[in-house]
Amino acid sequence: MRQKLQDSFSTIDWSEHKKGVPRSGPGSTLAHTESLRAALPMLFRKYQVKSFVDAPCGDWHWMQKVDLKGVSYLGLEIVEDLVETNTKQFGGRSVKFELADITNDPLPKADMIMCRDCLFHLKFWLRWEFFENFLASHSSYLLTTVHDNPFNRNVPENGKFRWFNPRIEPFNFPQPLELISDVPIGQDEGGDEDFRQRRYMGLWHRDQISEALKAREGA
Fold first, then answer.
1. Which of 179, 199, 203 is nearest to 189 (CA)?
2. Is the peptide bond before 170 cis (omega within 30 degrees of 0)?
3. Terminal CA-to-CA distance of the chain, rounded, Å?
């Protein structure tokens, strides 16, 4: 566990700043996640997902509405009191929560790991650490947030935000197997230059990520 990283995220509470927004932020409202909540069960069936790791899981405001029938769910979270609260409110035989730093602590092997609304808050080197950590887990698929920005900028400090597109420099991931809209239904995705409203969840197989990391090592 990286203590400074844990401290950075433990102090963030979006519900204190905007009415009607859950602790994990505006991207975690039911309105914002409607498309994703509908898509996840279809992905589970298509890719035969029986074990699913949500890293980080946040406050579980929207995930509690996802159909997890037949799926073993594990939520990983760096904020300790969120793990305790989620466990008390939502924990059960097939739904569990654990404290973890996804950039540093070993990730469990799963059919699919989702990393939503997280990497764009981290320094580039920590994003690479997470991808290495994902590969080390021998999990099959990674589902993660993708913006359509034309270039990536590093965050000034962990916990801040910059648009993140893993398909371009310096990450250069191949095109994902799936690209799922992750904006509120009915929101205009904007014109060619307005990438800020074009946001997705991209699905990659571990072999694709492995090739991206090998290319980085050889560069």
1. 199
2. yes
3. 29
